[in-house]
């Protein structure tokens, strides 16, 4: 059985929407796209070193898949990031009928929980989710995430799609790796803890 990890860029207040550009995701009237750019180069060095060297398959939502495909599918062969992503197997959660054009891509449709559980039971490399906010909400709901690979940027936005949104189930997590950047961004990896989250008793009014 293989593990599933999410790789997420977020602000200090937990927003993960459109880190790299203003047009990446403007849904719900979001106007702060590109908020990660000041720290981008040093964070991407960390990402390459800590999360992209080991073999992995990609699990992506359709919008993130389209963004990645437009950036990397036809990138020059000497681009190391493009080479890794092009060679990786890509599982794409989508309800659209159109064919996936990026090489090594396979659709996931129907019962998403059951399909991802099936993928996890297969032999193979790590399943790694990049971006894909809506997909992550489904993974959180069904307890399918084995590791959180988070990069937090020294930015506060006040609005936008948050990693842990309304309805998130309370849970404890164990920190397994941490590293900061000179810019103030920091990497932190967590795994779900076996400890039970105890809610404090409420005093009746």
UniProtKB/TrEMBL annotation:
Protein name (database record): Dihydrofolate reductase family protein
Gene3D superfamilies: Dihydrofolate Reductase, subunit A
Alphabetized InterPro entries for the sequence: DHFR-like_dom_sf, RibDG_C, Riboflavin_Biosynth_HTPR
Gene Ontology biological process terms, A to Z: riboflavin biosynthetic process
GO molecular function list: 5-amino-6-(5-phosphoribosylamino)uracil reductase activity
Superkingdom as given in the UniProt entry: Bacteria
Domain annotation Bacterial bifunctional deaminase-reductase C-terminal: ranges: 4-183
Organism: Microbulbifer okhotskensis
């Amino acid at each position: 059985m293989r593990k599933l990890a999410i790789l997420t860029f977020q602000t200090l207040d937990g927003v993960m929407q459109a880190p790299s550009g203003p047009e990446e995701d403007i849904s719900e009237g979001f106007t702060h796209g590109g908020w990660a750019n000041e720290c981008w180069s040093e964070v991407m060095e960390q990402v390459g070193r800590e999360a992209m060297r080991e073999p992995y398959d990609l699990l992506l939502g359709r919008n993130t898949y389209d963004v990645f495909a437009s950036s990397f599918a036809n990138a020059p062969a000497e681009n190391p990031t493009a080479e890794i992503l092009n060679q990786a197997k890509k599982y794409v959660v989508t309800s659209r009928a159109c064919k996936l054009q990026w090489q090594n891509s396979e659709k996931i449709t129907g019962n998403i929980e059951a399909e991802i559980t099936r993928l996890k039971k297969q032999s193979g490399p790590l399943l790694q989710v990049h971006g894909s906010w809506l997909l992550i909400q489904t993974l959180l709901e069904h307890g399918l995430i084995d590791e959180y690979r988070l990069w937090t940027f020294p930015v506060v936005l006040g609005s936008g799609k948050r990693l842990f949104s309304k309805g998130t189930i309370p849970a404890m997590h164990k920190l397994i790796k941490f590293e900061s950047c000179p810019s103030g961004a920091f990497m932190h990896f967590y795994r779900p803890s076996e400890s039970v989250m105890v809610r404090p008793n409420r005093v009746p009014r």
